[in-house]
C-alpha cells in the first residue's frame, strides 16, 4: 500500500531528523532558530507516532504488548461484520439505490445487441427451438390434449346442434329436397339383393317359429304347403321388397297422405318437450359413453413424437448449414400449405414469424418500453423479497475470515485512507508546532513578561 509505505518512511525520517536536530542543538547552542526547528520536528513526530499507534491499534497490539483498547477489529469482529453487512445491505446496495440503477438500464438495448451481434451468428433460433423440443414431454402433452379434447366433448350439447339442424331442414324450402335425397338413398339400399335375403331370412324365422308353436298336424300341413309352393318365402321376400320400394317412391310425393301424416307425427315427436328431454338425455348419455371408452392418447403421442422428430431433424440440418443469418427486416409472410405435416415448411414458417415479430419489436418503442417495464418489475419483485440475502451473504462471507484475513480485508478497502491519516498527522503536527512555538514565543511570552515587569 503506497500511503502506508509513505507514512512509514516519513515516520522514520522524522525520528532521524529529530535526533539529528537535537545533536546539532547540543553543539550549536540553544538558539531561537534551533528551538523552533526542534519544537516543529517534535510536534510532527508526536503527531505521526500518535496516528501510527491509533491506526495500528485497529488491527493489532502496537509493538506487541499494548493491550488496552487495541486490536479493536479482531476483538469486535462480530460487531464489525454486522456493521459491514448492514452498511452494504442498507446503504451501498439499498433497495432504493438498486431500483434507481435498474430504472436507468435499457434492457431491450442489450437484448437487441446480443441477438443481432452474437446469437444470430450461432444459429440461435435453431438452437432455441431444438432445446424447446428436447424439453417437451410428449406423453404428458398427449395426456393433456386428450383430457382437453374429452372435456370439450363433454361440454358439447349435440342435441342442440341436431335440433338446430332439424329446424333448419323442416322449416326451410330445402326440407323436401332433403327428404327426397334421403328417400333416394334408402330406395337404392332397398334394391340390393342383401335386403331381399334379409327379408327372406326374417320370413323363414317367422315360419319356423309358427311351426314350432303349433301341433303335429299344423306342422304337417305347413310342410305340405311348402312342398306345393303354397308358402314360398323367397317369392314373399321379393314381394315385400317390391312393396317397400313402391312405398318409398310414393313417399317422394310431398302431397302423399302417408308422407304428410309421417311428417306431422315426426314433427310432433321432435318438438314435444317430453320427447325432446328424453332424446337429449339419450344422445348426451350416448356421447359421454362414447367419449369415456375412447382412448386417443397413444395416437396423439405417436403423431406428436413423429412430428417432433421431423422438426428436430430439420432444425439440426438448418443449424449445420447456417454460415450467417442475414438481417431480414423486410421479410414478409409466406404461405405454407400442410405445415402441420411438413416439418420443413413448419420450420420455415416459424422462422419467418420469428423474424417478422423480431423486426416489429426492434422498431416499436412501445414494445421495448413494455419489455423494460416487465423486466424491471420482475427484478424489483425479486429484490424486494430477497434483498436481505445481500446482507446475509456479506455476513456469511466475512464470518469465514480469520482475524488476520479480516484485518487484511479492512486494510485493503480502507487502508490507503487510514494511512493517509498518519501523513496528515505529521503535517498537521508540524504546522501546529510552528503556530504554537510562534504564539508562545512571540505573543504569550512577551505578554507574560510585560505583566510581571509592571
TrEMBL record:
Domain of life where this protein originates = Bacteria
Keyword annotations from UniProtKB, A to Z: Membrane, Transmembrane, Transmembrane helix
Q: Name one Pfam family in it.
A: DUF445
Membrane spanning residue stretches: 36-59, 423-444
Q: Under the cellular component aspect of Gene Ontology, which terms does the record hold?
A: plasma membrane
- What InterPro entries does this protein's entry cite? DUF445
Output this protein's name: DUF445 domain-containing protein
Q: Which organism is it from?
A: Clostridium oryzae
Q: What is the taxonomic lineage of the source species?
A: Bacteria, Bacillati, Bacillota, Clostridia, Eubacteriales
Amino acid at each position: 500500500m503506497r500511503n502506508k509505505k509513505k507514512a512509514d518512511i516519513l515516520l522514520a525520517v522524522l525520528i532521524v531528523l529529530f535526533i539529528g536536530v537535537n545533536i546539532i542543538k547540543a553543539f550549536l547552542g540553544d538558539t531561537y532558530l534551533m528551538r523552533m526547528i526542534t519544537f516543529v520536528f517534535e510536534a510532527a513526530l508526536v503527531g505521526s507516532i500518535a496516528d501510527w499507534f491509533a491506526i495500528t491499534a485497529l488491527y493489532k497490539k502496537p509493538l506487541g504488548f499494548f493491550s488496552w483498547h487495541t486490536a479493536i477489529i479482531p476483538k469486535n469482529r462480530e460487531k464489525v461484520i454486522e456493521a459491514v453487512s448492514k452498511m452494504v445491505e442498507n446503504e451501498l446496495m439499498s433497495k432504493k439505490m438498486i431500483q434507481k440503477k435498474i430504472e436507468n438500464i435499457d434492457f431491450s438495448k442489450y437484448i437487441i445487441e446480443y441477438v443481432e451481434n452474437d446469437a444470430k451468428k450461432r444459429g440461435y433460433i435453431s438452437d432455441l427451438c431444438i432445446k424447446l423440443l428436447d424439453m417437451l414431454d410428449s406423453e404428458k402433452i398427449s395426456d393433456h390434449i386428450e383430457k382437453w379434447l374429452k372435456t370439450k366433448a363433454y361440454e358439447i350439447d349435440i342435441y342442440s346442434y341436431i335440433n338446430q339442424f332439424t329446424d333448419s331442414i323442416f322449416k326451410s324450402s330445402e326440407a323436401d329436397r332433403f327428404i327426397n335425397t334421403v328417400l333416394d338413398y334408402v330406395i337404392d339400399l332397398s334394391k340390393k339383393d342383401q335386403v331381399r335375403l334379409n327379408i327372406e331370412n326374417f320370413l323363414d324365422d317367422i315360419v319356423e317359429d309358427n311351426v314350432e308353436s303349433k301341433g303335429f298336424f299344423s306342422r304337417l300341413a305347413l310342410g305340405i304347403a311348402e312342398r306345393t309352393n303354397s308358402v314360398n318365402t323367397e317369392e314373399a321376400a321379393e314381394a315385400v321388397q317390391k312393396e317397400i320400394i313402391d312405398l318409398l317412391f310414393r313417399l317422394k310425393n310431398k302431397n302423399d297422405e302417408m308422407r304428410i301424416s309421417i311428417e306431422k307425427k315426426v314433427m310432433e315427436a321432435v318438438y314435444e318437450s317430453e320427447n325432446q328431454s328424453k332424446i337429449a338425455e339419450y344422445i348426451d348419455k350416448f356421447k359421454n359413453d362414447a367419449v369415456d371408452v375412447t382412448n386417443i392418447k397413444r395416437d396423439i403421442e405417436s403423431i406428436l413424437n413423429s412430428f417432433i422428430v421431423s422438426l428436430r431433424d430439420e432444425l439440426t440440418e438448418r443449424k449445420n448449414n447456417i454460415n450467417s443469418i442475414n438481417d431480414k427486416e423486410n421479410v414478409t409472410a409466406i404461405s405454407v400449405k400442410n405445415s402441420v405435416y411438413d416439418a420443413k415448411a413448419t420450420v420455415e414458417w416459424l422462422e419467418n414469424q420469428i423474424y417478422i415479430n423480431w423486426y416489429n419489436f426492434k422498431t416499436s418503442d412501445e414494445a421495448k418500453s413494455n419489455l423494460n417495464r416487465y423486466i424491471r418489475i420482475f427484478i424489483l419483485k425479486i429484490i424486494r423479497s430477497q434483498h436481505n440475502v445481500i446482507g446475509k451473504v456479506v455476513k456469511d462471507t466475512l464470518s469465514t475470515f480469520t482475524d488476520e484475513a479480516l484485518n487484511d480485508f479492512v486494510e485493503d478497502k480502507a487502508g490507503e485512507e487510514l494511512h493517509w491519516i498518519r501523513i496528515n498527522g505529521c503535517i498537521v503536527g508540524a504546522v501546529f508546532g510552528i503556530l504554537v512555538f510562534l504564539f508562545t514565543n512571540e505573543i504569550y511570552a512577551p505578554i507574560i513578561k510585560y505583566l510581571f515587569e509592571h
